From TrEMBL:
Any single Gene Ontology cellular-component annotation: plasma membrane
Entry's family note: Belongs to the binding-protein-dependent transport system permease family. CysTW subfamily.
Membrane protein topology class: Multi-pass membrane protein
Source organism per UniProt: Cypionkella aquatica
Transmembrane segments: 12-39, 59-82, 94-122, 128-151, 172-195, 229-248
Keywords, sorted A to Z: Cell membrane, Membrane, Transmembrane, Transmembrane helix, Transport
Protein name: Spermidine/putrescine ABC transporter
Highest taxon in the source lineage: Bacteria
Keyword Protease listed: no
Positions of the ABC transmembrane type-1 domain: 60-248
Compartments where found: Cell membrane
Pfam families named in the record: BPD_transp_1 (PF00528)
Repressor in keyword set: no
Any one biological process term the GO annotation gives: transmembrane transport
Length: 268
C-alpha cells in the first residue's frame, strides 16, 4: 500500500515538473498565435521568424559572449580554488571556502542588488562586462563543486612520482594534474555556460542598455503575437540545455573513472 502511494506521488510529481517542457514544443509547432487547445495544425513558421529579428540576434550574441567569458573565468577560478581546498591546509580554510560557496544559497536578487550598488558606487558603467562579473560570481561555486570531486579523487602518488622524476610543482600540475582533471574542467565549462545562458536576474540589473537572451524573452511576452516565436526559441534552448547537461555528465563520469574515484551522484 505504501509503495503504491509513493509510486503515485512520484508519477504526479514528474508530470507536474515536466509537463510544461512537453507542452513547449507542442505549441511551438502549432499553427496559431493563441496558446490553447485544440491545436490548429502543424507549422514551422515560428522557427523561421527567429531568423528575421535583429534584436534577437543581438541578444543571442551578447549571451554567447557573456556565457563563454563567465564559463572560462569561473572554471579557471574553480580550478585554483578546488586545488587549494583539496590539496593544502591553510588557516580559516573552512570559513573561506564557505564564503566562496555562499552565492549558492543566497537569492540571486540579493546578489544582483548588492553588486549593482557597489558598481554604481565606484562609478562603473553598466555593460556586458558588469554582467560577466555577476555571472562569474554565480557560476564559480558551481565550478568548485564540480572540480572538487575531480581533485579529491586524484591519486597523489602520481604527483609525488612526477616530483621524484624532477618536475617542478608548476610543471607537475600542468603535465600530470590538469590532464587527469580535464574531464571535470570540460564538465565545469559546459555547466557554467548553461547557467550563465539561463541567468536572468543578474542580466536584468547589470546589463544597462544591452539585452541578453533571457531579458529579450522576458520583454517579448508583452506582445501576444510574439509568444509562439518565443515558444519556438524556448524549444531550441531546452534541447540545447539537455545536450550540454548530458555532455557535461558524460565528461564528469569519465573523469571519475579516469582518476579511480567513486561516483557519488551527478546532474542526470
Amino acid at each position: 500500500m505504501k509503495g503504491g502511494w509513493f509510486r503515485g506521488y512520484t508519477i504526479a510529481y514528474l508530470i507536474f515538473l515536466y509537463a510544461p517542457i512537453v507542452l513547449l514544443p507542442i505549441f511551438a509547432f502549432n499553427n496559431s498565435t493563441t496558446v490553447a487547445f485544440p491545436l490548429n495544425g502543424f507549422t514551422t513558421l515560428w522557427f523561421g521568424k527567429l531568423w528575421e529579428d535583429p534584436a534577437l540576434h543581438r541578444a543571442l550574441s551578447n549571451s554567447l559572449i557573456i556565457g563563454i567569458s563567465a564559463a572560462v573565468i569561473s572554471t579557471a577560478l574553480g580550478v585554483f580554488a578546488s586545488r587549494a581546498s583539496t590539496r593544502y591546509a591553510f588557516p580559516f580554510k573552512g570559513g573561506l571556502m564557505g564564503l566562496i560557496m555562499l552565492p549558492l544559497v543566497l537569492p540571486d536578487i540579493i546578489l544582483a542588488v548588492a553588486l549593482l550598488t557597489v558598481l554604481l558606487g565606484i562609478g562603473t558603467p553598466l555593460s556586458l562586462m558588469t554582467v560577466i562579473l555577476g555571472h562569474v560570481l554565480v557560476c564559480t561555486p558551481f565550478s568548485i563543486a564540480i572540480l572538487s570531486a575531480s581533485f579529491q579523487s586524484l591519486d597523489h602518488s602520481l604527483e609525488e612520482a612526477a616530483y621524484d622524476l624532477g618536475e617542478t610543482p608548476i610543471s607537475a600540475f600542468r603535465l600530470v594534474i590538469l590532464p587527469l582533471v580535464l574531464p571535470g574542467i570540460i564538465s565545469s565549462l559546459l555547466i557554467t555556460f548553461t547557467i550563465s545562458l539561463d541567468e536572468f536576474i543578474m542580466a536584468f540589473f547589470l546589463a544597462g542598455n544591452e539585452n541578453t537572451l533571457p531579458v529579450y524573452i522576458f520583454g517579448q511576452f508583452r506582445f501576444p503575437q510574439n509568444v509562439p516565436v518565443i515558444l519556438a526559441l524556448g524549444t531550441i534552448l531546452v534541447c540545447l540545455s539537455i545536450a550540454l547537461l548530458a555532455t557535461a555528465e558524460y565528461f564528469r563520469r569519465r573523469g571519475i573513472a579516469k582518476t579511480g574515484g567513486k561516483d557519488t551522484g551527478g546532474f542526470l
